[in-house]
Amino acid sequence: MDESLNVFDEPLLSCSESPVTGFFRDGCCNTSDEDFGSHTVCVEVTQDFLDYSRFRGNDLSTPMPDFGFPGLQAGDRWCLCASRWLEAYEQGMAPKIFLTRTHKRALEIVELEKLKEYAADIN
User: The domain containing residue 3 runs over which residues?
Assistant: First the structure.
């Protein structure tokens, strides 16, 4: 696992324990070389984003008990793939994010200035 640092090179804060999120299902947007999707952006999902994601082929609303996935509802926090967030950003559908809970490796895919535009945890 990569070092747990956020986009400010500070300790990465937990994104969500309910539902438990993260590539490692540790509540944080931690990542490693095995995380090909780069599940590094901590978001608060909206219904519009969930609908958009389902339309793009990634249904995050439907529970999948076999995989321990409860399905997301508007207001849930989730470690989203950085490329999916960027795609949603480019389509005007990106959800708010939490920079202190977003892993610094997200910056390999998304510029910090774009992330800051949607930050819910900084002014």
Answer: 1-123
- Could you tell me the CATH number of the domain that includes residue 23? 3.30.56.110
Tell me which residue of 26, 84, 19 sits closest to 58, measured CA to CA.
84
Intervals of the chain under pLDDT 70? 123
The structure tokens listed for 23 are 């590539």
The type of residue at 100 is T
* pTM of model > 0.70: yes
- Distance CA(69)–CA(114), nearest Å, equals 29
Q: Vertex 53, ends 48 and 58: CA angle to 5°?
A: 150
| Torsion from C-alpha of 102, 37, 69, 100, nearest 10 degrees | 0
Question: What is the phi-psi region of residue 92: left when phi exceeds 0, alpha when psi lies from -120 to 50, beta otherwise?
Answer: left
